[in-house]
UniProtKB/TrEMBL annotation:
Residues 4-202 form the CobB/CobQ-like glutamine amidotransferase domain. InterPro entries: Class_I_gatase-like, CobQ_GATase1, GATase_3, Lipid_II_synth_GatD. The keyword Lipid metabolism does not apply. HAMAP family: Lipid_II_synth_GatD. Gene3D superfamilies: 3.40.50.880. GO terms for molecular function: glutaminase activity. The keyword Zinc-finger does not apply. One of its GO terms (biological process) is cobalamin biosynthetic process. Keywords: Glutamine amidotransferase. This is Unannotated protein.
């Protein structure tokens, strides 16, 4: 069986380099001898069937188009219902939620797959390094090592009762809803504000998504020394920024 990883609409949701997440997942699968295909799905075509879908960040206009196209297409919803995994970053995170604003602040319906809602912030855009402490397994969290990434968004997101946050922001803004939370997950859908691409900096998160998509068995260990070096460098840079600017940015 071939694992099919789909980068969703890189023509609309490719502005921030998040298409790299699909490539990273593909590499980490193939390094373990897993037969894998990485598909780049254009918004001009029907969305292909896949086991793991990656949505990235984008500007406000293309984000509205992508949401409309995904709604009309219907494949993402049915794939999720049939057990596929969805990983969504920033604009993607907002799209899979219940509602999100356009450039004027007018709200649009999202896909309603993840119980989050986004509104337009009134302050300055949230831009910069982010560090998040994942909630522990014993508290219903994912229990992964510190999440490191880069945010650049105007939308502020709050979680509904069906979604759980990934964790607590240690540096940066994250969801920006006033509760210091970052990201959300619900069943097999996981969203975050973090770019990077975030899976390059957070191999444990990449492997969690691969574990979900391959049926939950343990994955072979990889040599992550380069990823670890990148993490250390980025986490140090955030620590220096914390010392300069304080604990967390306010949206
Ligand atoms: N347009 C959205 C916002 O500004 C998403 C931005 C992004 O994907 N980086 O909130």
């Amino acid at each position: 069986m071939t694992l099919r990883i789909v980068a969703v609409y890189p023509d609309l949701l490719g502005t921030y380099g998040d298409t790299g997440n699909a490539e990273i997942l593909g590499r980490r699968a193939s390094w373990r001898g897993i037969d894998v295909d990485v598909l780049h799905a254009s918004s001009a075509d029907p969305l292909p069937r896949g086991d793991l879908y990656c949505l990235g960040g984008g500007e406000d206009g293309p984000q509205v188009l992508a949401a409309q196209r995904l709604k009309d297409d219907g494949t993402l919803r049915s794939a999720l219902e049939e057990g596929a995994v969805v990983f969504a970053v920033c604009a993607g995170f907002q799209i899979v939620g219940n509602s999100f604003p356009d450039a004027q602040g007018t709200l649009h319906n999202g896909l309603g797959l993840l119980d989050v809602a986004t509104r337009k912030g009134t302050g300055s855009r949230c831009v910069g390094e982010v560090v998040v402490e994942f909630d522990a397994l014993e508290h219903g969290g994912l229990g992964l090592p510190l999440l490191t990434g880069f945010e650049n968004h105007a939308g502020l997101t709050t979680l509904g009762p069906s979604a759980r946050r990934l964790g607590q922001v240690r540096h940066g803004t994250g969801n920006g809803g006033g509760d210091s939370s970052e990201g959300a997950f619900q069943d097999r859908i996981l969203g975050t504000y973090l770019h990077g691409p975030v899976l390059a900096r957070n191999p444990a998160l990449a492997d969690l998504l691969l574990t979900w998509a391959t049926g939950g068995g343990e994955l072979q260990e990889l040599d992550d020394s380069r990823e670890i070096a990148l993490r250390e460098e980025r986490l140090l840079s955030a620590t220096r920024a914390t010392n300069r600017e304080g604990f967390a940015r306010k949206p």
